[in-house]
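Running this now, will post back.
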Amino acid sequence: MKLEGTPALVAGGASGLGAATARELVRRGARVAIADLDGERANALVEELGGNALAFKADVTSEADVEAAVAATVEAFGGLRFAASCAGIGWAERVVTRNGPAQLQPFETVIRVNLIGTFNVLRHCAAAMSAAEPDDDGERGAVVMTASVAAFDGQIGQAAYSASKGGVVGLTLPAARDLARQGIRVCTIAPGIFDTPLLAALPEENRQALGESVPFPSRLGRPEEYARLACHIAENSMLNGETIRLDGALRMPPK
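Update: finished.
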């Protein structure tokens, strides 16, 4: 897939990994719709990126919101060829605490946003892509989803987050197989410890210690490194049905 002129959508695109992906896509000549629950931040990013970007306020767990954002993207850009699903939340709690069993609602909420929201974006974007004319290789589109190394190396207190990201990993291959007939590829990136808003509130010494735990390079990942991989997946037609760890050889300890 050539990204020059390609219509794209980034869910959770107003900050962190999503914002970096939107910037990289525009830099490569794509036209990008930024869908995010934070509409003000999405609009601010569009002002930064200029005429090749649009903003939509959307909750990835809402069928109506995602359907509307995809439809508006297709109307504005004349189609949809690439999507990156970057929306996500975290929650830390042990399965059993001093007060008894873990709370069920936070677990459900994390699963709903991280896994069900990812599937909601996937299904609506893939449906729009399937209506496009295939290119010379028979390709109609590509979708990048976001997991985490926590899908494989979940730490103490990460039951909800790890389960949600493990679900995204498990979704990747069957989704790619489901959509092969339509010429739509599906891959997932599993980042390690990245310098995103989720870590911004930590003291600098804690952030530095986290970076030093990465074998090489011994630092926090940069959102633009995720973005470049997402764009490479779009451009490399043989990447399909794969989850790629982007972690500097990190394997998370129990805590």
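The beta strands are 7-11, 31-36, 53-57, 82-85, 96-97, 100-101, 141-146, 184-191, 243-246. More later if anyone needs it.
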